[in-house]
Design a protein that fits this description.
This protein has 251 residues and is an alpha/beta fold. The protein is built from twelve helices and seven strands. The protein has a seven-stranded mixed sheet with strand order 3-2-1-4-5-7-6. Helix 4 links the parallel strand 2 and strand 3. The site of S-adenosylmethionine has 19 residues, from helix 3.
C-alpha cells in the first residue's frame, strides 16, 4: 500500500502542482546524464512512474526507451501516449519485465511508498543487466535542510523521519548486490515567487504525502507564515524558494 491513494483527484492535482516544468529540471538532466552515461535506445525502467514526467524527459533527453511501471490506474492514465514509453501496471516488487532486460532503474519520490524495499531491490536486481545503475530521487529521513516544504511547514519532518534513510536504503540494496556509488543533492526550479507558492499550497496539500500529514492547525500556521513573507516581499524568504532532493546512485 502506498502512503496515500493515487486516485483520479490526486492524479489531477499531482499533474497540476507536483510535475516540475522541463526547464526547471536542468540540474537533474545534468546529474542523471553523468551517472547514467546514456547510450541511444537504452532501456530505463521508471518504477512508480506517476504521470510520466521523468519517463518522457528521459526519452527526450537521452533518446532512451522507457518502461513506465505504475500501480495506480489514475496516474497511468495521465502518462503521455508515445512510442518510446511503454506503460505497464506493476509494483516495485513485481516488475513486468524479463530478467536482465533493462539498462537502468529510476525511482523518483517512490521509495517511501514501497512497503518491502528489500524485496523491491531483489526484483530490480532481477530486471537489470549486470553493472546497470539504480538512480533514486527522493527525500530521505534526516536530510531535509534543503527541502522548501520543511522551511514553510516544519511539522512535515514528523512524517519525513519515517521515510527510509540513505543508510536503510543502501542496506536494502546491499542485500541484492548493489553498492552505493554517489549521493548528491540536486536542485529543481518549479516556483517563481512566494505568491505562486501560496496559491498552490491547497492543491499541494492534496497531492503531496508530506503536506497531507499536517494537522489543520499546522497547515494554517505554515500558510500564514507564507502569506506574511509574500506580503513583505522578504528577499531572504524569496531565496527560500529553492529546493533540492537527493540523488542516490547504486550499482
Ligand atoms: C509521488 S509519486 C511520484 C511519481 C513520479 N515518479 C514522479 O516523480 O513524478 C509516487 C508514485 O509511486 C507510486 N507507487 C506507490 N507504491 C508503489 C510501489 N509499491 N511500487 C511502485 N510504485 C508505487 C504511486 O502510485 C505514485 O504514482
Amino acid at each position: 500500500m502506498a502512503r496515500i491513494t493515487y486516485d483520479a483527484a490526486t492524479a489531477a492535482s499531482f499533474r497540476a502542482v507536483r510535475e516540475i516544468p522541463r526547464d526547471g529540471l536542468t540540474a537533474w538532466e545534468d546529474a542523471v546524464r553523468r551517472h547514467l552515461r546514456p547510450s541511444p535506445d537504452m532501456t530505463i525502467v521508471d518504477i512508480g512512474a506517476g504521470t510520466g514526467a521523468f519517463a518522457t524527459a528521459f526519452c527526450d533527453w537521452f533518446a532512451a526507451r522507457v518502461v513506465a511501471v505504475e500501480p495506480s490506474e489514475a496516474m497511468r492514465a495521465l502518462i503521455p501516449n508515445r512510442p518510446d514509453v511503454q506503460v505497464r501496471a506493476g509494483h516495485a516488487t513485481s516488475l513486468p519485465l524479463p530478467d536482465a532486460s533493462a539498462d537502468a532503474a529510476w525511482l523518483s519520490t517512490v521509495t517511501h511508498h514501497i512497503p518491502d524495499l528489500s524485496g523491491a531491490a531483489q526484483e530490480i536486481r532481477r530486471v537489470l543487466r549486470p553493472g546497470a545503475p539504480v538512480l533514486i530521487r527522493n527525500a530521505f529521513a534526516g536530510r531535509y535542510e534543503r527541502l522548501r516544504i520543511v522551511r514553510w511547514f516544519p511539522e512535515t519532518t514528523r512524517l519525513l523521519d519515517t521515510y527510509p534513510s540513505v543508510e536503510e536504503t543502501c542496506e536494502a540494496f546491499a542485500d541484492a548486490g548493489f553498492a552505493p556509488a554517489a549521493l548528491e543533492p540536486v536542485p529543481q526550479t518549479d516556483i517563481a515567487s512566494l505568491d505562486e507558492l501560496l496559491k498552490r499550497v491547497d492543491a499541494l496539500r492534496d497531492a503531496d504525502t508530506l503536506m497531507r500529514s499536517l494537522t489543520e492547525e499546522e497547515f494554517t500556521r505554515g500558510k500564514d507564515r507564507l502569506r506574511g513573507a509574500a506580503g513583505a516581499h522578504d528577499s531572504a524568504a524569496a531565496a527560500d524558494l529553492a529546493s533540492s532532493l537527493d540523488l542516490l546512485v547504486l550499482r
